[in-house]
Amino acid sequence: MLENLKQSGYKIGVITDVPTGMPTELILQDINAFKDNIDFFLSSIDCGFRKPNKKGIELISEKFGIDLQNIAFIGDEEKDIQTAKNAGVMSFLINRDKRNKNYGEDIQIKSLIELLDFVK
């Protein structure tokens, strides 16, 4: 899915919370399989704030030179949706376990592949 989005001209940024004191390099090892499809990676350590603070999304907006209204934030936790809301960007909740969830997201999907319905 990430490769498809990149080929379609979308920029992909990742924001992740990490435990205090954990080096970002350890997280980068976890995304090694798909890191070539990410344009900007930001950890809470690098950013200086944890979700639901909007600073990470603002930094991605600045990095890409795009307005916040042109950003979609995708996550699988309530704090992800709150982060999107705090920044004023569109929010997608990935609900893979099919439990009844409603965190105030704009759109709920079951997998990343469903994004294709919204970006084309």
From TrEMBL:
NCBIfam families: HAD-SF-IA-v1 (TIGR01549). The keyword Hydrolase applies. This is HAD family hydrolase. GO terms for biological process: DNA repair. The keyword Hydrolase applies. SUPFAM superfamilies: HAD-like. CDD domains: HAD_like (cd01427). Keywords: Hydrolase. GO terms for cellular component: cytosol. GO terms for molecular function: phosphoglycolate phosphatase activity.
